[in-house]
């Protein structure tokens, strides 16, 4: 087929309209979310003292941290789904949860905490945390990758890593309502390790499936 | 250069608003620029220039299938060249070469290079043969026989909607096959 002929067939297909990447990503995450919630409801559940825990700023802070990861990661991943987009100028958004955690760790240190630092960091749920966040992330990660496949990222591994951050941030938000460890030191340690695992999986899979 | 790129942006806006003729003109206008850049990229990688047309066709298919990622408020050329660069790097990598693609390959085209021509390429034609019968028939009819959607529908006793679906699926399948080959 010569190029003029190909162009003719492309022009004939001009009426075809694809949805925006943001719409596809939103739909894919909404389809995946019930699976993650099912894992949560089956194996974890909301902690029994959730109502009273809401008065504890460190409990609330966990959600601020996880959502400040998930939402900026969605924004940056949509930005990077355009072929000419650069991370420059947008990457700082991903530092929001880091900044929040640093403030929370400082706040806790000033409040003369009841337990020594290592006990707060190690907590009681580290193993569950390391299993539950990646497990609940997987359906969301599949959804995020499916949604981003609709885009045209110039760096597929980076876009895949962002899909990992999106899914880990959302899964960690669920997990935070189950976990009784509220110390920001615990969050900074174990949530971060779990997120790093999911991000690495996202980058590895993304480098293959996000090429366009 | 500025004027040319503004013209492209205007054509693409019209195309997205449903003007098929503007879209056709735009694709015709960018093709010589893409071809010159593909040749230069191949030359730099020590590859024969006769594969340039395969790369041009891959770029055009990607432009078509990813045009919803173009922001109509943004200029068209940077978006186009980003896709072209990506496809050129992919193509050279597939041929087992270390790749250095210069952004300027796309941004700066000498006027003399951008002459009008068309050329055949082997890869799209080869993959065309692997498509399902219906998609192949529709693509052949529209691309090679220059039939309209309407005439193609009449020829194969299909609805126009079914022709459009087969055309789009055929183009998407071709692109996927080229990418994964």
UniProtKB/TrEMBL annotation, chain A:
Sorted alphabetically, which keywords does the UniProt record give? Membrane, Transmembrane, Transmembrane helix
Q: By its UniProt entry, which InterPro entries does this protein fall under? A: NrsF
A Pfam family cross-referenced in the UniProt record is NrsF
Q: Which domain of life is it from?
A: Bacteria
Q: Which residues cross the membrane?
A: 21-43, 63-80, 92-111, 131-148, 157-176, 188-210
| Name listed for the protein in its UniProt record | DUF1109 family protein
To which species is this protein native?
Answer: Bradyrhizobium cajani
From TrEMBL, chain B:
Q: Which residues cross the membrane?
A: none
Q: Which GO terms describe its biological process?
A: DNA-templated transcription initiation
Q: Has UniProt tagged this entry with the keyword Transmembrane helix?
A: no
**Keywords in alphabetical order:** DNA-binding, Sigma factor, Transcription, Transcription regulation
For the RNA polymerase sigma factor 70 region 4 type domain, which residue ranges apply?
123-174
Q: Report the InterPro entries cross-referenced here.
A: RNA_pol_sigma-70-like (IPR039425), RNA_pol_sigma-70_dom (IPR014284), RNA_pol_sigma70_r2 (IPR007627), RNA_pol_sigma70_r4_t2 (IPR013249), RNA_pol_sigma_r2 (IPR013325), RNA_pol_sigma_r3/r4-like (IPR013324), WH-like_DNA-bd_sf (IPR036388)
**Gene Ontology MF: a single term:** DNA binding
- Keyword set includes Transcription regulation: yes
Describe the location of the RNA polymerase sigma-70 region domain by residue ranges: 32-98
Xref: Pfam families: Sigma70_r2 (PF04542), Sigma70_r4_2 (PF08281)
Q: Which family does it belong to?
A: Belongs to the sigma-70 factor family. ECF subfamily.
* Designated name of the protein: Sigma-70 family RNA polymerase sigma factor
Provenance organism = Bradyrhizobium cajani
